[in-house]
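Exercise (ungraded).
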Amino acid sequence: MNRLSSLLVLLFTLFAASFNAKAQEDSTAHTEATHEATESKEALNIKKIIFEHVGDAHEWHFFTAGEFHATIPLLVILYSPTNGLSVFSASKFGHEGHREVHNGYQLVDDHYKESLIAAGTPASDVEKIKNGSILAVDGSKVYDFSITKNVMSMLISVVLLLWIMMSVAKKYKQRGVMKAPSGLQNAIEPIIGFIYTEVAKPNLTNKANKYMPLLLTFFFFIWINNLLGLLPGGANFTGNIAVTLALALVCFIVMLVKANGHFWGHLLNPPGVPFGVKLLLVPIEIISLFIKPIALTIRLFANILAGHIVILSIVCMIFIFGAMAPSAGWGFSPVSIAFSVFMFFLELLVAAIQAFIFTTLAAVFIGSAIEEGHGHEDAHHHHEVEEIIL
Amino acid sequence: MELLTPELGLFVWTLTAFIIVFLILKKFAWKPILSSLNDREKGIADSIASAERVKAEMATMQAENQKIMVEAREERTQMLKEAKELKEKIVNEAKDQAKAEASKIISDARVQIDHLKMAAMTEVKNEVAALALQVAEKVLRKNLATDADQSNYAKMLAEEVQLN
Protein backbone atom coordinates (compact mmCIF):
# COMPACT_ATOMS: atom_id res chain seq x y z
CA MET A 1 0.00 0.00 0.00
CA ASN A 2 2.79 2.30 1.02
CA ARG A 3 4.81 1.48 -2.05
CA LEU A 4 1.79 2.01 -4.30
CA SER A 5 1.05 5.43 -2.88
CA SER A 6 4.66 6.57 -3.22
CA LEU A 7 4.62 5.35 -6.81
CA LEU A 8 1.46 7.32 -7.40
CA VAL A 9 3.03 10.43 -5.94
CA LEU A 10 6.05 9.98 -8.19
CA LEU A 11 3.96 9.48 -11.31
CA PHE A 12 1.83 12.40 -10.36
CA THR A 13 4.83 14.64 -9.82
CA LEU A 14 6.33 13.65 -13.14
CA PHE A 15 3.02 14.31 -14.77
CA ALA A 16 2.78 17.66 -13.03
CA ALA A 17 6.24 18.63 -14.15
CA SER A 18 5.60 17.62 -17.72
CA PHE A 19 2.23 19.31 -17.69
CA ASN A 20 3.75 22.53 -16.44
CA ALA A 21 6.39 22.18 -19.11
CA LYS A 22 3.71 21.76 -21.73
CA ALA A 23 1.75 24.70 -20.48
CA GLN A 24 4.88 26.77 -20.51
CA GLU A 25 5.70 25.59 -23.99
CA ASP A 26 2.27 26.50 -25.21
CA SER A 27 2.23 29.87 -23.59
CA THR A 28 5.73 30.52 -24.79
CA ALA A 29 4.74 29.56 -28.28
CA HIS A 30 1.73 31.77 -27.89
CA THR A 31 3.75 34.66 -26.56
CA GLU A 32 6.22 34.22 -29.33
CA ALA A 33 3.45 34.17 -31.90
CA THR A 34 1.88 37.35 -30.56
CA HIS A 35 5.26 38.96 -30.22
CA GLU A 36 6.09 38.14 -33.76
CA ALA A 37 2.78 39.56 -34.86
CA THR A 38 3.20 42.76 -32.89
CA GLU A 39 6.91 43.36 -33.41
CA SER A 40 7.97 42.04 -30.00
CA LYS A 41 10.72 43.51 -27.81
CA GLU A 42 11.76 40.20 -26.30
CA ALA A 43 11.62 36.64 -27.53
CA LEU A 44 10.91 35.09 -24.12
CA ASN A 45 9.59 36.95 -21.09
CA ILE A 46 10.20 34.47 -18.26
CA LYS A 47 9.22 36.92 -15.56
CA LYS A 48 5.83 37.47 -17.18
CA ILE A 49 5.20 33.74 -17.53
CA ILE A 50 6.06 33.00 -13.95
CA PHE A 51 4.09 35.90 -12.56
CA GLU A 52 1.08 34.91 -14.62
CA HIS A 53 1.27 31.44 -13.10
CA VAL A 54 1.62 32.49 -9.49
CA GLY A 55 -0.91 35.29 -9.84
CA ASP A 56 -4.67 35.22 -9.71
CA ALA A 57 -6.98 35.22 -12.76
CA HIS A 58 -10.61 35.43 -13.74
CA GLU A 59 -10.27 32.35 -15.88
CA TRP A 60 -8.86 28.95 -15.00
CA HIS A 61 -6.35 28.48 -17.76
CA PHE A 62 -5.00 24.96 -18.35
CA PHE A 63 -3.24 25.18 -21.68
CA THR A 64 -3.42 26.76 -25.12
CA ALA A 65 -2.92 24.73 -28.24
CA GLY A 66 -2.82 26.89 -31.31
CA GLU A 67 -6.06 28.81 -31.36
CA PHE A 68 -7.68 26.51 -28.77
CA HIS A 69 -7.68 27.90 -25.24
CA ALA A 70 -8.37 25.29 -22.57
CA THR A 71 -9.77 27.67 -19.99
CA ILE A 72 -12.72 27.60 -17.65
CA PRO A 73 -14.28 31.07 -17.43
CA LEU A 74 -15.17 31.90 -13.83
CA LEU A 75 -17.85 34.08 -12.30
CA VAL A 76 -17.14 37.79 -12.24
CA ILE A 77 -18.79 39.71 -9.42
CA LEU A 78 -18.21 43.46 -9.47
CA TYR A 79 -19.49 46.22 -7.29
CA SER A 80 -19.22 49.77 -8.40
CA PRO A 81 -20.64 52.65 -6.36
CA THR A 82 -21.94 54.18 -9.58
CA ASN A 83 -23.13 51.12 -11.52
CA GLY A 84 -24.08 48.88 -8.61
CA LEU A 85 -23.62 45.11 -8.56
CA SER A 86 -22.97 43.19 -11.77
CA VAL A 87 -22.50 39.42 -12.07
CA PHE A 88 -21.49 37.72 -15.30
CA SER A 89 -19.21 35.07 -16.72
CA ALA A 90 -15.60 35.94 -17.47
CA SER A 91 -16.14 34.55 -20.97
CA LYS A 92 -17.97 37.82 -21.70
CA PHE A 93 -14.52 39.47 -21.79
CA GLY A 94 -13.64 37.41 -24.86
CA HIS A 95 -10.59 35.16 -24.73
CA GLU A 96 -6.87 35.51 -24.46
CA GLY A 97 -5.49 38.01 -26.92
CA HIS A 98 -8.97 39.19 -27.94
CA ARG A 99 -10.36 41.00 -24.94
CA GLU A 100 -13.62 42.87 -25.22
CA VAL A 101 -15.35 45.48 -23.13
CA HIS A 102 -18.40 44.14 -21.33
CA ASN A 103 -20.94 46.28 -19.47
CA GLY A 104 -18.40 49.08 -19.30
CA TYR A 105 -15.71 46.85 -17.70
CA GLN A 106 -12.43 45.78 -19.22
CA LEU A 107 -10.09 42.91 -18.27
CA VAL A 108 -6.61 44.40 -18.33
CA ASP A 109 -4.02 42.74 -20.57
CA ASP A 110 -0.98 43.96 -22.48
CA HIS A 111 -3.07 45.10 -25.42
CA TYR A 112 -5.25 47.25 -23.21
CA LYS A 113 -2.20 48.72 -21.52
CA GLU A 114 -0.72 49.56 -24.87
CA SER A 115 -3.96 51.16 -25.95
CA LEU A 116 -4.02 53.17 -22.71
CA ILE A 117 -0.52 54.44 -23.39
CA ALA A 118 -1.52 55.20 -26.95
CA ALA A 119 -4.50 57.15 -25.57
CA GLY A 120 -2.10 59.32 -23.60
CA THR A 121 -2.15 57.88 -20.07
CA PRO A 122 1.32 58.25 -18.48
CA ALA A 123 3.32 54.99 -18.79
CA SER A 124 4.22 55.03 -15.08
CA ASP A 125 0.50 54.93 -14.17
CA VAL A 126 -0.20 52.13 -16.64
CA GLU A 127 2.67 50.06 -15.23
CA LYS A 128 0.94 50.04 -11.83
CA ILE A 129 -2.19 48.34 -13.19
CA LYS A 130 -2.17 44.60 -12.61
CA ASN A 131 -2.58 42.40 -15.61
CA GLY A 132 -5.81 40.42 -15.23
CA SER A 133 -7.50 42.97 -13.03
CA ILE A 134 -10.79 44.52 -14.02
CA LEU A 135 -11.18 48.24 -14.65
CA ALA A 136 -14.20 50.34 -15.42
CA VAL A 137 -13.70 51.89 -18.82
CA ASP A 138 -14.96 55.24 -17.54
CA GLY A 139 -12.29 55.16 -14.83
CA SER A 140 -14.69 54.95 -11.86
CA LYS A 141 -13.90 52.86 -8.78
CA VAL A 142 -14.69 49.11 -8.99
CA TYR A 143 -14.61 46.55 -6.19
CA ASP A 144 -13.81 43.13 -7.54
CA PHE A 145 -15.39 40.26 -5.58
CA SER A 146 -15.11 37.77 -8.43
CA ILE A 147 -14.82 34.05 -7.97
CA THR A 148 -11.27 34.05 -9.27
CA LYS A 149 -9.06 31.03 -9.83
CA ASN A 150 -7.82 31.26 -6.23
CA VAL A 151 -11.33 31.60 -4.80
CA MET A 152 -12.48 28.66 -6.91
CA SER A 153 -9.54 26.59 -5.74
CA MET A 154 -10.37 27.50 -2.15
CA LEU A 155 -14.02 26.53 -2.63
CA ILE A 156 -12.90 23.14 -3.94
CA SER A 157 -10.59 22.75 -0.94
CA VAL A 158 -13.43 23.73 1.39
CA VAL A 159 -15.69 21.06 -0.11
CA LEU A 160 -12.90 18.49 0.16
CA LEU A 161 -12.10 19.49 3.72
CA LEU A 162 -15.72 19.38 4.84
CA TRP A 163 -16.25 16.03 3.13
CA ILE A 164 -13.11 14.45 4.63
CA MET A 165 -13.66 15.68 8.16
CA MET A 166 -17.38 14.97 8.22
CA SER A 167 -16.79 11.41 7.04
CA VAL A 168 -14.12 10.97 9.70
CA ALA A 169 -16.43 12.36 12.37
CA LYS A 170 -19.17 10.02 11.16
CA LYS A 171 -16.85 7.06 11.41
CA TYR A 172 -16.30 7.67 15.11
CA LYS A 173 -20.04 7.56 15.61
CA GLN A 174 -20.47 4.43 13.52
CA ARG A 175 -17.57 2.40 14.81
CA GLY A 176 -17.72 3.53 18.40
CA VAL A 177 -14.93 5.07 20.36
CA MET A 178 -13.00 2.06 21.54
CA LYS A 179 -12.44 0.50 18.12
CA ALA A 180 -9.13 0.99 16.32
CA PRO A 181 -9.40 3.69 13.63
CA SER A 182 -9.41 2.70 9.96
CA GLY A 183 -9.04 4.34 6.57
CA LEU A 184 -9.20 8.12 6.47
CA GLN A 185 -9.91 8.16 10.17
CA ASN A 186 -6.61 6.41 10.69
CA ALA A 187 -4.84 9.01 8.55
CA ILE A 188 -6.40 12.02 10.26
CA GLU A 189 -6.29 10.81 13.86
CA PRO A 190 -2.50 10.86 14.34
CA ILE A 191 -2.37 14.35 12.84
CA ILE A 192 -5.00 15.54 15.30
CA GLY A 193 -3.06 13.87 18.07
CA PHE A 194 0.13 15.48 16.87
CA ILE A 195 -1.44 18.95 16.78
CA TYR A 196 -2.73 18.38 20.30
CA THR A 197 0.48 17.14 21.90
CA GLU A 198 3.00 19.19 19.91
CA VAL A 199 1.16 22.43 19.24
CA ALA A 200 -1.82 22.99 21.51
CA LYS A 201 -0.67 21.43 24.80
CA PRO A 202 2.79 23.07 25.10
CA ASN A 203 1.54 26.56 24.15
CA LEU A 204 -1.97 26.71 25.55
CA THR A 205 -1.57 24.29 28.49
CA ASN A 206 -4.90 23.88 30.26
CA LYS A 207 -6.86 25.80 27.61
CA ALA A 208 -5.59 23.57 24.79
CA ASN A 209 -8.95 21.85 24.30
CA LYS A 210 -10.72 25.16 23.81
CA TYR A 211 -8.50 26.26 20.94
CA MET A 212 -8.09 22.87 19.28
CA PRO A 213 -10.91 23.44 16.72
CA LEU A 214 -9.33 26.69 15.54
CA LEU A 215 -5.83 25.22 15.34
CA LEU A 216 -7.08 22.13 13.51
CA THR A 217 -8.97 24.30 11.03
CA PHE A 218 -5.86 26.40 10.44
CA PHE A 219 -3.72 23.36 9.90
CA PHE A 220 -5.96 21.37 7.61
CA PHE A 221 -7.17 24.41 5.67
CA ILE A 222 -3.63 25.53 4.92
CA TRP A 223 -2.34 22.04 4.28
CA ILE A 224 -5.03 21.00 1.84
CA ASN A 225 -4.69 24.29 -0.03
CA ASN A 226 -0.91 23.92 -0.16
CA LEU A 227 -1.38 20.47 -1.66
CA LEU A 228 -4.02 21.62 -4.14
CA GLY A 229 -1.62 24.38 -5.19
CA LEU A 230 0.90 21.71 -6.16
CA LEU A 231 -1.52 20.02 -8.56
CA PRO A 232 -0.79 20.73 -12.20
CA GLY A 233 -2.84 23.73 -13.20
CA GLY A 234 -3.58 24.37 -9.55
CA ALA A 235 -3.93 27.85 -8.13
CA ASN A 236 -1.27 29.48 -5.98
CA PHE A 237 -3.78 30.04 -3.20
CA THR A 238 -1.68 29.93 -0.02
CA GLY A 239 1.09 31.79 -1.85
CA ASN A 240 -1.17 34.80 -2.15
CA ILE A 241 -0.71 37.54 0.40
CA ALA A 242 -4.44 38.35 0.59
CA VAL A 243 -5.08 34.79 1.76
CA THR A 244 -2.36 34.63 4.38
CA LEU A 245 -3.36 38.08 5.55
CA ALA A 246 -6.94 36.92 6.06
CA LEU A 247 -5.76 33.86 8.01
CA ALA A 248 -3.34 35.89 10.11
CA LEU A 249 -6.09 38.40 10.79
CA VAL A 250 -8.31 35.65 12.18
CA CYS A 251 -5.49 34.62 14.50
CA PHE A 252 -4.78 38.23 15.48
CA ILE A 253 -8.42 38.95 16.28
CA VAL A 254 -8.74 35.81 18.37
CA MET A 255 -5.58 36.83 20.17
CA LEU A 256 -6.82 40.36 20.87
CA VAL A 257 -10.30 39.23 21.94
CA LYS A 258 -9.03 36.50 24.24
CA ALA A 259 -6.10 38.45 25.69
CA ASN A 260 -6.36 38.81 29.47
CA GLY A 261 -5.47 41.59 31.85
CA HIS A 262 -2.07 40.09 32.55
CA PHE A 263 -1.17 40.34 28.85
CA TRP A 264 -2.35 43.95 28.48
CA GLY A 265 -0.72 44.88 31.76
CA HIS A 266 2.64 43.56 30.67
CA LEU A 267 2.21 45.18 27.27
CA LEU A 268 1.17 48.68 28.33
CA ASN A 269 2.69 48.92 31.79
CA PRO A 270 5.53 46.43 32.23
CA PRO A 271 5.97 45.82 35.98
CA GLY A 272 9.28 46.38 37.63
CA VAL A 273 10.64 48.62 34.89
CA PRO A 274 11.81 52.19 35.51
CA PHE A 275 9.71 54.92 33.92
CA GLY A 276 12.37 55.99 31.43
CA VAL A 277 12.77 52.49 30.11
CA LYS A 278 9.00 52.15 29.98
CA LEU A 279 8.82 55.03 27.51
CA LEU A 280 11.11 53.04 25.25
CA LEU A 281 9.73 49.60 25.95
CA VAL A 282 6.00 50.17 25.52
CA PRO A 283 6.18 51.36 21.89
CA ILE A 284 8.41 48.40 21.06
CA GLU A 285 5.95 46.06 22.72
CA ILE A 286 3.07 47.56 20.76
CA ILE A 287 5.00 47.26 17.50
CA SER A 288 5.85 43.65 18.32
CA LEU A 289 2.16 42.98 18.86
CA PHE A 290 1.43 44.02 15.28
CA ILE A 291 4.50 42.28 13.92
CA LYS A 292 3.09 38.94 15.05
CA PRO A 293 0.29 38.73 12.44
CA ILE A 294 2.58 40.25 9.82
CA ALA A 295 5.12 37.50 10.51
CA LEU A 296 2.36 34.92 10.10
CA THR A 297 1.27 36.52 6.83
CA ILE A 298 4.68 36.84 5.25
CA ARG A 299 6.04 33.48 6.34
CA LEU A 300 3.37 31.33 4.75
CA PHE A 301 2.96 33.51 1.68
CA ALA A 302 6.68 33.78 0.97
CA ASN A 303 7.41 30.08 1.48
CA ILE A 304 4.68 28.83 -0.80
CA LEU A 305 5.25 31.52 -3.41
CA ALA A 306 8.99 30.82 -3.42
CA GLY A 307 8.36 27.11 -3.92
CA HIS A 308 6.08 27.77 -6.88
CA ILE A 309 8.51 30.25 -8.42
CA VAL A 310 11.45 27.86 -8.03
CA ILE A 311 9.59 25.02 -9.74
CA LEU A 312 8.42 27.30 -12.52
CA SER A 313 11.91 28.70 -12.96
CA ILE A 314 13.46 25.28 -13.23
CA VAL A 315 10.90 24.28 -15.83
CA CYS A 316 11.35 27.57 -17.67
CA MET A 317 15.07 26.87 -18.00
CA ILE A 318 14.14 24.35 -20.70
CA PHE A 319 12.70 27.19 -22.74
CA ILE A 320 15.57 29.54 -22.02
CA PHE A 321 17.91 26.89 -23.41
CA GLY A 322 15.40 26.08 -26.12
CA ALA A 323 15.39 29.73 -27.19
CA MET A 324 19.16 29.55 -27.66
CA ALA A 325 19.00 26.32 -29.64
CA PRO A 326 16.21 23.71 -29.79
CA SER A 327 18.68 20.90 -29.17
CA ALA A 328 19.92 22.61 -26.01
CA GLY A 329 16.29 22.79 -24.81
CA TRP A 330 15.76 19.07 -25.43
CA GLY A 331 19.11 18.29 -23.87
CA PHE A 332 18.39 20.22 -20.74
CA SER A 333 14.85 18.93 -20.23
CA PRO A 334 15.83 15.72 -18.33
CA VAL A 335 17.95 17.77 -15.92
CA SER A 336 15.15 20.24 -15.50
CA ILE A 337 12.56 17.55 -14.93
CA ALA A 338 14.80 15.81 -12.40
CA PHE A 339 15.20 19.10 -10.55
CA SER A 340 11.50 19.83 -10.60
CA VAL A 341 10.70 16.31 -9.36
CA PHE A 342 13.05 16.95 -6.48
CA MET A 343 11.42 20.33 -5.89
CA PHE A 344 7.97 18.76 -5.92
CA PHE A 345 8.98 16.35 -3.19
CA LEU A 346 10.42 19.22 -1.25
CA GLU A 347 7.21 21.19 -1.75
CA LEU A 348 5.13 18.25 -0.53
CA LEU A 349 7.17 18.43 2.66
CA VAL A 350 6.99 22.23 2.79
CA ALA A 351 3.20 22.08 2.34
CA ALA A 352 2.89 20.17 5.61
CA ILE A 353 5.67 22.02 7.41
CA GLN A 354 4.31 25.47 6.62
CA ALA A 355 0.83 24.46 7.73
CA PHE A 356 2.37 23.16 10.94
CA ILE A 357 4.43 26.31 11.47
CA PHE A 358 1.47 28.59 10.90
CA THR A 359 -0.56 26.56 13.40
CA THR A 360 2.28 26.55 15.93
CA LEU A 361 2.83 30.30 15.65
CA ALA A 362 -0.90 30.90 16.01
CA ALA A 363 -0.85 28.74 19.14
CA VAL A 364 2.21 30.56 20.50
CA PHE A 365 0.63 34.00 19.92
CA ILE A 366 -2.72 33.02 21.42
CA GLY A 367 -0.89 31.27 24.25
CA SER A 368 1.10 34.40 25.07
CA ALA A 369 -2.15 36.42 25.16
CA ILE A 370 -4.05 34.07 27.48
CA GLU A 371 -1.16 33.13 29.73
CA GLU A 372 -2.02 33.47 33.40
CA GLY A 373 0.21 35.84 35.34
CA HIS A 374 2.85 34.54 37.69
CA GLY A 375 3.02 37.88 39.48
CA HIS A 376 1.01 36.85 42.51
CA GLU A 377 2.87 33.62 42.88
CA ASP A 378 6.16 35.48 42.71
CA ALA A 379 5.05 37.98 45.33
CA HIS A 380 3.88 35.14 47.54
CA HIS A 381 7.16 33.40 47.05
CA HIS A 382 9.13 36.49 48.01
CA HIS A 383 6.98 36.85 51.08
CA GLU A 384 7.80 33.31 52.12
CA VAL A 385 11.50 33.92 51.62
CA GLU A 386 11.32 37.03 53.76
CA GLU A 387 9.57 35.13 56.51
CA ILE A 388 12.26 32.52 56.50
CA ILE A 389 14.96 35.20 56.70
CA LEU A 390 13.20 36.97 59.57
CA MET B 1 5.30 44.71 -5.79
CA GLU B 2 2.30 43.24 -7.61
CA LEU B 3 2.52 40.14 -5.43
CA LEU B 4 2.68 42.13 -2.19
CA THR B 5 -0.57 44.05 -2.64
CA PRO B 6 -3.46 41.99 -1.33
CA GLU B 7 -6.60 41.95 -3.46
CA LEU B 8 -9.74 42.92 -1.60
CA GLY B 9 -11.96 40.31 -3.28
CA LEU B 10 -9.74 37.34 -2.46
CA PHE B 11 -9.19 38.63 1.06
CA VAL B 12 -12.92 38.90 1.74
CA TRP B 13 -13.70 35.52 0.20
CA THR B 14 -10.93 33.81 2.16
CA LEU B 15 -11.98 35.41 5.42
CA THR B 16 -15.66 34.47 4.99
CA ALA B 17 -14.92 30.98 3.73
CA PHE B 18 -12.44 30.30 6.51
CA ILE B 19 -14.81 31.48 9.22
CA ILE B 20 -17.70 29.44 7.78
CA VAL B 21 -15.50 26.36 7.42
CA PHE B 22 -14.26 26.85 10.96
CA LEU B 23 -17.78 27.11 12.36
CA ILE B 24 -19.07 24.10 10.41
CA LEU B 25 -16.07 21.93 11.18
CA LYS B 26 -16.11 22.96 14.83
CA LYS B 27 -19.70 21.87 15.26
CA PHE B 28 -19.84 18.82 13.01
CA ALA B 29 -16.28 17.52 12.88
CA TRP B 30 -13.86 18.74 15.56
CA LYS B 31 -16.21 18.55 18.52
CA PRO B 32 -17.28 14.95 17.82
CA ILE B 33 -13.79 13.84 16.85
CA LEU B 34 -12.11 15.47 19.83
CA SER B 35 -14.70 14.20 22.27
CA SER B 36 -14.36 10.71 20.79
CA LEU B 37 -10.60 10.86 21.15
CA ASN B 38 -11.03 12.13 24.68
CA ASP B 39 -13.43 9.31 25.48
CA ARG B 40 -11.04 6.78 24.04
CA GLU B 41 -8.17 8.22 26.03
CA LYS B 42 -10.28 7.96 29.17
CA GLY B 43 -11.37 4.47 28.23
CA ILE B 44 -7.80 3.34 27.73
CA ALA B 45 -6.69 4.97 30.96
CA ASP B 46 -9.57 3.25 32.77
CA SER B 47 -8.70 -0.08 31.22
CA ILE B 48 -5.10 0.26 32.24
CA ALA B 49 -6.09 1.33 35.74
CA SER B 50 -8.48 -1.58 36.12
CA ALA B 51 -5.88 -3.98 34.75
CA GLU B 52 -3.43 -2.62 37.30
CA ARG B 53 -6.02 -3.06 40.01
CA VAL B 54 -6.79 -6.61 38.97
CA LYS B 55 -3.08 -7.32 38.90
CA ALA B 56 -2.68 -5.96 42.40
CA GLU B 57 -5.69 -7.97 43.54
CA MET B 58 -4.24 -11.06 41.97
CA ALA B 59 -0.97 -10.43 43.75
CA THR B 60 -2.64 -10.05 47.13
CA MET B 61 -4.78 -13.10 46.42
CA GLN B 62 -1.74 -15.10 45.55
CA ALA B 63 0.01 -13.94 48.68
CA GLU B 64 -3.05 -14.94 50.68
CA ASN B 65 -3.17 -18.29 48.98
CA GLN B 66 0.48 -18.79 49.77
CA LYS B 67 -0.17 -17.88 53.37
CA ILE B 68 -3.09 -20.26 53.58
CA MET B 69 -1.04 -23.00 52.00
CA VAL B 70 1.76 -22.48 54.48
CA GLU B 71 -0.70 -22.49 57.35
CA ALA B 72 -2.37 -25.61 56.04
CA ARG B 73 0.96 -27.34 55.72
CA GLU B 74 1.88 -26.38 59.25
CA GLU B 75 -1.45 -27.56 60.50
CA ARG B 76 -1.04 -30.84 58.72
CA THR B 77 2.38 -31.38 60.25
CA GLN B 78 0.99 -30.48 63.62
CA MET B 79 -1.88 -32.87 63.19
CA LEU B 80 0.39 -35.64 62.07
CA LYS B 81 2.63 -35.03 65.04
CA GLU B 82 -0.30 -35.05 67.44
CA ALA B 83 -1.69 -38.18 65.91
CA LYS B 84 1.66 -39.89 66.27
CA GLU B 85 1.94 -38.84 69.87
CA LEU B 86 -1.59 -39.98 70.57
CA LYS B 87 -0.94 -43.30 68.92
CA GLU B 88 2.19 -43.83 70.97
CA LYS B 89 0.38 -42.85 74.11
CA ILE B 90 -2.48 -45.18 73.41
CA VAL B 91 -0.15 -48.03 72.57
CA ASN B 92 1.90 -47.42 75.69
CA GLU B 93 -1.16 -47.21 77.85
CA ALA B 94 -2.47 -50.41 76.35
CA LYS B 95 0.87 -52.05 76.94
CA ASP B 96 1.02 -50.88 80.55
CA GLN B 97 -2.52 -51.94 81.16
CA ALA B 98 -1.89 -55.32 79.62
CA LYS B 99 1.24 -55.72 81.70
CA ALA B 100 -0.57 -54.77 84.87
CA GLU B 101 -3.41 -57.09 84.04
CA ALA B 102 -1.06 -59.89 83.31
CA SER B 103 0.90 -59.42 86.48
CA LYS B 104 -2.32 -59.21 88.43
CA ILE B 105 -3.55 -62.40 86.85
CA ILE B 106 -0.24 -64.08 87.60
CA SER B 107 -0.20 -62.94 91.20
CA ASP B 108 -3.80 -64.00 91.64
CA ALA B 109 -2.95 -67.33 90.18
CA ARG B 110 0.00 -67.62 92.46
CA VAL B 111 -2.11 -66.72 95.49
CA GLN B 112 -4.69 -69.27 94.50
CA ILE B 113 -2.00 -71.87 93.82
CA ASP B 114 -0.52 -71.19 97.26
CA HIS B 115 -3.93 -71.39 98.79
CA LEU B 116 -4.69 -74.68 97.09
CA LYS B 117 -1.24 -75.97 97.97
CA MET B 118 -1.85 -75.08 101.61
CA ALA B 119 -5.22 -76.70 101.58
CA ALA B 120 -3.76 -79.75 99.91
CA MET B 121 -0.86 -79.86 102.38
CA THR B 122 -3.23 -79.47 105.33
CA GLU B 123 -5.34 -82.29 104.02
CA VAL B 124 -2.22 -84.40 103.38
CA LYS B 125 -0.98 -83.59 106.87
CA ASN B 126 -4.30 -84.46 108.41
CA GLU B 127 -4.41 -87.66 106.38
CA VAL B 128 -0.79 -88.52 107.39
CA ALA B 129 -1.50 -87.69 111.03
CA ALA B 130 -4.59 -89.86 111.00
CA LEU B 131 -2.64 -92.68 109.31
CA ALA B 132 0.25 -92.26 111.77
CA LEU B 133 -2.18 -92.43 114.69
CA GLN B 134 -3.78 -95.50 113.29
CA VAL B 135 -0.31 -97.08 112.67
CA ALA B 136 0.86 -96.05 116.13
CA GLU B 137 -2.29 -97.39 117.70
CA LYS B 138 -1.90 -100.67 115.80
CA VAL B 139 1.89 -100.83 116.76
CA LEU B 140 1.16 -100.00 120.30
CA ARG B 141 -1.67 -102.42 120.46
CA LYS B 142 0.65 -105.20 119.11
CA ASN B 143 3.87 -104.29 121.18
CA LEU B 144 2.20 -103.80 124.43
CA ALA B 145 -0.06 -106.77 124.26
CA THR B 146 1.81 -108.64 127.01
CA ASP B 147 2.53 -107.43 130.45
CA ALA B 148 6.19 -108.04 130.14
CA ASP B 149 6.35 -105.73 127.18
CA GLN B 150 4.42 -103.12 129.08
CA SER B 151 6.80 -103.23 132.00
CA ASN B 152 9.88 -103.22 129.76
CA TYR B 153 8.66 -100.18 127.96
CA ALA B 154 7.83 -98.51 131.22
CA LYS B 155 11.24 -99.39 132.42
CA MET B 156 12.91 -98.03 129.33
CA LEU B 157 10.95 -94.80 129.67
CA ALA B 158 11.98 -94.58 133.27
CA GLU B 159 15.64 -95.09 132.36
CA GLU B 160 15.42 -92.33 129.75
CA VAL B 161 14.01 -90.02 132.35
CA GLN B 162 16.78 -90.93 134.82
CA LEU B 163 19.43 -90.36 132.27
CA ASN B 164 18.04 -86.91 131.49
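Further reading is listed at the end of the chapter. For now, observe: Confidence is low (pLDDT under 50) at residues 14-42, 375-390 of chain A. The first helix of chain A runs from residue 2 to 37.
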